[in-house]
Amino acid sequence: xxxGSAHANTATATRRPRWLLPFGAFAVLFLIAAQAAALLLSxxxxxxxxxxxxxxxxxxxxxxxxxxxxxxFFASVLYLWKRREAYDMLAASAAQVGIVFIGLxxxxxxxxxxxxxxxxxxxxxxxxxxxxxFMIYAGYLxxxxxxxxxxxxxxxxxxxxxxxxxxVPIVYMSVRWWRTIHQVQSTPDTMDxxxxxxxxxxxxxxxxxxxxLVGMRYHIARLERARAAAHEETALAGGTVHV
Length: 243
What we know:
- The protein is mainly alpha-helical and 243 residues long.
- It has helices spanning 3-13, 20-41, 55-82, 85-117, 125-146, 150-164, 167-177, 193-242.
- Helix 3 runs antiparallel to helix 4 (85-117) and helix 5 runs antiparallel to helix 6.
- The chain starts with a helix and ends with a helix.
């Protein structure tokens, strides 16, 4: 393959989807509107007062931090089944974005815990299992960084992505399985209707942001892979000419 064709293939393979940036703009505007609605329309809670407004960032972050490992899990399963590079890149992209949301969940939980429980951190089962989830995906990303062989990296990462997902139901059920000071999951029956629809609105806002960020990271991953392949092909072609 010539250098020109290699660069042409790179441009074709890395063309950004037309929907991505408009969707990103929509996601950001939707998030701003959802947060503004939560701040302006949500009445103070009887017990927590205005502190309850952190609910509209903490809970959507927590939900998204469970969706991300699910995407990593299914993409990893598909990679081991189909052996297609696209699934490996999708899993890695979801893990990179997901660990941000897991970290946000932990930080927001600590901010909420300080005035509510009187401490920044306690080894509550929900907090502990979420911290373990963070470490699992930090390890996942470290494994990808330190493994040079692409096929080996993809296979090992897929195994970690599948096994790591087993911690997600443990995180979710921890408040029911063990004695914990963290409240159990709320339902529409246990919440005021205003809180419920504002929470659902922000949950969609965070989901849209997650989809946009994963889409952008996946696009960047394709760009990196295509450029690396083009450079390798160009180098090989140049070597052949010199011989």
